[in-house]
What we know:
- The protein has 412 residues and is of the alpha/beta class.
- It folds into two domains: 32-205, Rossmann fold, CATH 3.40.50; 208-262 and 272-407, Dehydroquinate synthase-like - alpha domain (Dehydroquinate synthase-like, alpha domain).
- Helix content is 43%, strand content 15%.
- It contains 17 helices and 13 strands.
- It has helices at 45-50, 67-72, 76-86, 110-122, 137-149, 163-169, 207-212, 214-224, 226-234, 236-240, 244-264, 281-290, 297-314, 320-333, 355-364, 387-400, 403-407; strands at 6-8, 11-13, 32-35, 59-66, 91-93, 98-100, 130-135, 155-160, 177-179, 182-186, 194-198, 370-375, 378-382.
- β12 and β13 form a beta hairpin.
- α13 (297-314) crosses α16.
- It starts with 5 loop residues before the first strand and ends in a 5-residue tail after the last helix.
Amino acid sequence: MKQKPHGTKTGTKDFPVDCQMQDFTVSFDYPVYFSQDIFNPENDLLASVVDRRMEFRRHRAKVFIDSGIVEASKDFPQRVKAYMESRQDLLEMEGAVEIVPGGAKAKGDWDLVRHTMSSLAKSHLCRQSYVLAIGGGSVLDMVGLAASLVHRGVRLIRAPSTVLAQNDAGVGVKNGIDDHGMKNFAGTFSPPFAVLNDFLLLRTLPSKHWIGGIAEAFKVAIIKDPDFFDFLCQNAHNLAKRDETAIETIIKRCATLHLEHIRNSGDPFELGSARPLDFGHWCAHRLEVLSEYRMAHGQAVAMGVALDTCYARLMGMLTAQEQDAVIGALEKTGLPFWSDLLERKGKNGELEILKGLDDFQEHLGGSLNVTLPTAIGRKTEVHEMDKSVIIEAIAHLKNRAVPQRFQEGFLS
Ligand SMILES: NC(=O)c1ccc[n+]([C@@H]2O[C@H](COP(=O)([O-])OP(=O)(O)OC[C@H]3O[C@@H](n4cnc5c(N)ncnc54)[C@H](O)[C@@H]3O)[C@@H](O)[C@H]2O)c1
Ligand SMILES: [Zn+2]
C-alpha cells in the first residue's frame, strides 16, 4: 500500500518504515442557550435539551451544585430536585444533589475529582447518562474533568452561574484543575452536551465576581471587536452597577465571539501554540498562582490585559490613546490593573511574574506565542517578549495606580 505522509498542522514527514496512516474526523455539536429561570417547572428547556438526540427514553442524571449558589439561596438544591421530579417522564435524578466547594478550592484538590468520580460510580451512571454541573468556572472545570474521565466521558450539561462562566469558562471545550504550581495543569478537552446560561442565577453573585467576568469581555473585544469594545466603554458604569440588560448583552456577545473562535479557528483542541483567547493570560495565570489563588481569575485577567496592552504600547504597536482607553475602561468598570505581586522578586532577584512566560509556553507547547493588540480590535502573535519592556510596563502601571485603592478588594 502507498504510504501517506504523516501530516500535522505544522509540517509533513515521510516515514521510511511500513506505516498505515490513521486519519479520521469527528464532528462535535452542542447548543449554548441564553435563558432565564431554567429550573422553573414551567420551563421546558432542560427537559428538551436532555432529549435533543430524540432518544425517547428516560435519562439518568446526577446533579452537582456550587456551594456559593447554595449559600446565597438555601432552597436552590430543592428547586432543582423539584424540577427533576416534575419531569419524571424524561429525567431520573440519581441520588441526592451534591454540593461542591465553590471557587478556587474546587480546582485545587484531586480528592474532589476522585470524590466526584466516586459519586458517579455509586450512581452507576453510563456514558449516555448526564452530569448536570451548576456553578462558576471553577466547579464546572473540576466536575467537567471528572465527568470526562468516568467511562472516558459521561455527557455533561453545564449551567454556568457566574458572569465569567456564562461568557467564557462554561461555553468552551476545556476543563481542568490546578496542580504542580500551574493553572489548569491537569485537564482534558471535552465538549459539553449542552450549555444552559440562566441569567437569573447571576442575581446572587457577589459584585467582585460580577465585575471580574467583564474582564474576559474586554479581553476578547480588544483583540477582535472594536464595536464591542466601544459598547463596553460606554456601559462601564452600568455594568459595574449590575445593570442586567447590559450584562446580558455582553455575556451573549462575548460567548458568541468565543464560540466563533472555537468553531472557525481550525484548532478547537489547541494542538498548535497560538491561543488568541488567552490574551493577557500568561500574566493572569501567574498572578493567580503567586496569590495562592486568593486572586480571582477575572481580576487577574484584567491586570494581564492591562500589562500586555501597556507592553504593546511601549513596543510601538498601539498608540498611547488606545492604551489609555483600555486602562481607563477597566478602571471605570471597577477592574484592577495593578497588584503588588507584579513587582515581587524571587530569590534570584528576578520578578516572579516573568516565570509566567515559561509556564505559558510549557502549557501550550512549542514556541512561545503571546497575543498582543495592534489596534483596538486587531491582534498579532509574538514569539518573544522583551523582559526589560515588561518591567517598564509594570513601572508604568504602578505609577498610574492609586495604591490604596488597589491594595484591598480583589484579594479575598
Ligand atoms: N475551561 C475553560 O475554558 C475556562 C475558561 C476561563 C476560565 N476558566 C476557569 O474558571 C475559573 C474562574 O471561574 P469564575 O470566575 O466563574 O469563578 P469561580 O467559579 O471561582 O466562582 C467564584 C465564586 O462565586 C461563587 N458563586 C458561583 N456562582 C454563584 C452564584 N450564582 N451566586 C453566588 N455565588 C456564586 C463560587 O462559589 C465562588 O465562591 C478559573 O479557575 C479559570 O481558570 C476556565
Ligand atoms: Zn480566562
